[in-house]
Design goal:
Layout (H helix, E strand, L loop, with lengths): L15 E4 L3 H11 L1 E7 L6 E6 L2 E6 L5 H14 L4 E10 L9 E9 L19 H14 L3 E8 L12 H5 L4 E3 L2 H10 L3 E11 L8 H18 L1
Helix pairs in contact: 2-5, 3-6
The structure holds hypoxanthine.
The site of hypoxanthine has 11 residues, from strand 5, strand 8 and strand 9.
Length: 233
């Protein structure tokens, strides 16, 4: 049973799917971290693979950039492929003094400036949150591995290039840790479909200082994040 955006058949995906933004990163994860990975979808080059990790079946698929793209792919995985939990593995730009390049952020909540929630016709503001079981497992595993993790709110922004120079100020005042572009859609889809989700993010750049990860650091941080995600998958 293919969907408009996924040529996988029912049963092609594991109950747990890891989702980086970049489909080539999904391919890299499949090749370097999974055993016997097989390609299950490549519609629009949004590559998805299923293999095993420590004997357990795991899938990995790109989510693209932004909430509309994440919304499409995670909705289909949850509702047409019986996926139970999705762990986003991505990068984010820090807007907090407490959050430095190489830190790993567990997105407890995902604020957003997008209109994604308007479809639910709520009489107020929805608070998109991570699944507590996944969050707790990731926090505990990170502590055991000695990783520097922060837990808190992130901002899922609709814009990477923003015309408003003051756009981040209010979010900074509210203690939001970092900016990315997908988690709120993932958390809302998971809530609506009674599924589980967590975003694990490495800080790739500090928006307040302009500091960025070097390519060596990028590689190391990515591996730390992947090992953390796989340990709870
Ligand atoms: N903005 C949005 N998404 C991001 C950023 C950013 O600065 N850095 C990494 N992902």
């Amino acid at each position: 049973m293919a969907t408009p955006h996924n040529r996988g058949e029912k049963g092609d995906f594991a109950r747990t799917v890891l989702m980086p933004g970049d489909p080539l990163r999904a391919k890299f994860i499949a090749r370097h971290f999974l055993e016997n990975p097989r390609l299950v979808t490549d519609v629009r080059n949004m590559l998805g693979f299923t293999g095993t990790y420590g004997g357990k079946e795991i899938s990995v698929m790109g989510a693209g950039m932004g909430m509309p793209s994440m919304g499409i792919y995670c909705h289909e995985l949850f509702s047409f492929y019986d996926v139970d939990q999705i762990i986003r593995v991505g990068t984010a730009g820090s807007i907090s003094q407490d959050c430095k390049v190489r830190d790993i952020v567990l997105a407890e909540g995902a604020c957003t400036n997008s209109a994604f929630a308007s479809q639910y016709r709520l009489k107020g503001t929805f608070a998109p949150t991570a699944d507590f079981g996944l969050l707790n497992a990731a926090y505990t595993a990170a502590g055991k591995s000695g990783l520097s993790v922060k837990v808190g709110n992130v901002l899922s922004s609709d814009t990477f290039y923003c015309d408003d120079p003051d756009a981040n100020d209010g979010w900074i005042r509210m203690g939001v840790l970092c900016i990315e572009m997908e988690s709120a859609a993932l958390y809302m889809e998971a809530a609506r479909l009674h599924k589980k989700a967590l975003s694990i993010l490495t800080i790739s750049d500090e928006i307040l200082t302009g500091r960025e990860l070097s390519s060596d650091q990028r590689e190391r941080s990515f591996t730390d994040m992947m090992e953390l995600a796989l340990s709870i998958a």
